[in-house]
């Protein structure tokens, strides 16, 4: 007992001697670094292997394209905010309830899209070009970003690990979705709502299942 | 917000800026608190001491997750609680973690943690013997006989010290001069 108390005192001395200053906003920096690294790999993967859409130069003038990109960006930003709170033990009041808001707003756009299209043409709205691949390519592109987030979380202290796993999964897939916008030839809201949404859901569920194992400290 | 709580917050903020002296003092302050926290929750003193060390290491390696705008005690005890839950999980403890959480959180863990700090501050002003007797029996939960033996005093002496000390404390809490 006395020996282990002495070990504690020794530990205190050693920890204090090894102190190095911590920059302010350390969590934001680390998250930023992890995401930047992952997103760079995903973007390279998209440009070099999957290929950017040929009409990219024209499409940047289309509000539909920006609606889709905005839906991804908003989901990514919100989930990143939630993830940054999950980085701390005993996180303050979470804003996790806001996470579905981009999806719901975008659902309004999808409803409007359906309403302004004859029912006979609804199927192409949903299936677009390449619905079979969309979800899976988004998930593939999310892997490097998820790895980056995991790397960042290794220096964090999440106490709700399943939630942390889920929200990082969502965040990685939303950023991957944003990158995939460079390729995806379909800009209809119905399509993006369903197939990107499916990717988000799978990523969040897988992340949740892995959370306890990956985010343990 | 008590003065003592503020001191911890300030010491930790200094530590984050690289002040090793403030950090050393802070860690030394944490040791008895963590010991009291774990001793009340695990059966063996050796395990408690291991958990104290684990928590200190986590405090060190995870210090970038401390938010300077929030109470240090809440952050510290969240880490301690995590280490405790992890210990129970590893040792195959059968009680569900949610229940454990509830027991420890006890409604408002943060205020309980701060209350503990208040107690420490009040205790600090007592004569050494009374302070020791109260700390050992009321905070660490040891028996009178054990405490008396460890301190080399009689059991009735230990009991008297606890009694006198508590009386003094209650007078202080009621606002009489320190």
Describe the structure.
Chain A is mainly alpha-helical and 217 residues long. Chain A has helices at 2-17, 26-50, 56-59, 63-86, 101-115, 122-127, 131-153, 161-180, 189-214. The model of chain A has no long low-confidence stretch (mean pLDDT 92). Chain A has one domain (24-214). By secondary structure, chain B is mainly alpha-helical. Chain B is 75% helix and 0% strand. Chain B is built from 9 helices and no strands. Chain B has helices spanning 3-16, 20-39, 45-61, 72-90, 97-105, 109-123, 128-139, 144-151, 155-173. Chains A and B meet through helix 1 and helix 2 of A and helix 2, helix 3 and helix 4 of B.
* Fraction in helix of chain A: over 70%
Number of strands of chain B: 0
SSE string of chain B? HHHHHHHHH
Q: How much helical structure, as a percent, in the residues of chain B?
A: over 70%
Name the biggest interface. A-B, 32 and 38 residues
Summary tags:
heterodimer, A: 217 residues, mainly alpha, 73% helix, elongated, B: 178 residues, 9 helices, globular
List the helices and strands and how they pair.
The complex is a heterodimer of chains A (217) and B (178).
Chain A: H1 2-17, H2 26-50, H3 56-59, H4 63-86, H5 101-115, H6 122-127, H7 131-153, H8 161-180, H9 189-214
Helix pairs in contact in A: 2-7, 2-8, 4-5, 4-8, 5-9, 7-8, 7-9, 8-9
Chain B: H1 3-16, H2 20-39, H3 45-61, H4 72-90, H5 97-105, H6 109-123, H7 128-139, H8 144-151, H9 155-173
Helix pairs in contact in B: 1-2, 2-3, 3-4, 4-5, 7-9, 8-9
